[in-house]
Design brief:
Strand content: 5-15%
Strand order of the largest sheet: 1-3-2
Number of helices: 6
Order of helices and strands: HHEHHEEHH
Radius of gyration: 18 Å
């Protein structure tokens, strides 16, 4: 979980995730949208991949990156349930209902 929060703590990495939301892109394609070198983009992609938020596939001379949507959604959903004041009571209520159903 720490790796996910570390990855999401960076504005450029969050922007990279946004760019990958609808398309599979190479590091060069991502770098063309930012004011940073391909090397810097590759480092950010490495952090995102290490956190399990993106995956890569080498095709010919290019590495294509894409989101791991299930992992990202689960991580963000879990985070929101912990920090959101509205979600905390709902999470407690849900746990109580689950415990009640289990007891019945």
């Amino acid at each position: 979980m720490d790796k996910i929060f570390e990855a999401l703590a960076s504005t450029p990495r969050r922007k990279i995730l946004a760019y990958l939301a609808e398309a599979e892109l190479t590091a060069g394609e991502i770098a063309s949208r930012f004011d940073m070198t391909k090397s810097a983009v590759s480092q950010h992609l490495g952090v995102l991949e290490n956190a399990g938020l993106v995956t890569s596939e080498k095709r010919g001379q290019y590495v294509h990156y894409r989101l791991v949507p299930d992992h990202l959604a689960n991580a963000l959903n879990g985070y929101l349930q912990v920090v959101c004041p509205v979600s905390r009571p709902l999470k407690r209520e849900s746990a109580a209902l689950a415990a009640k159903k289990k007891a019945d």
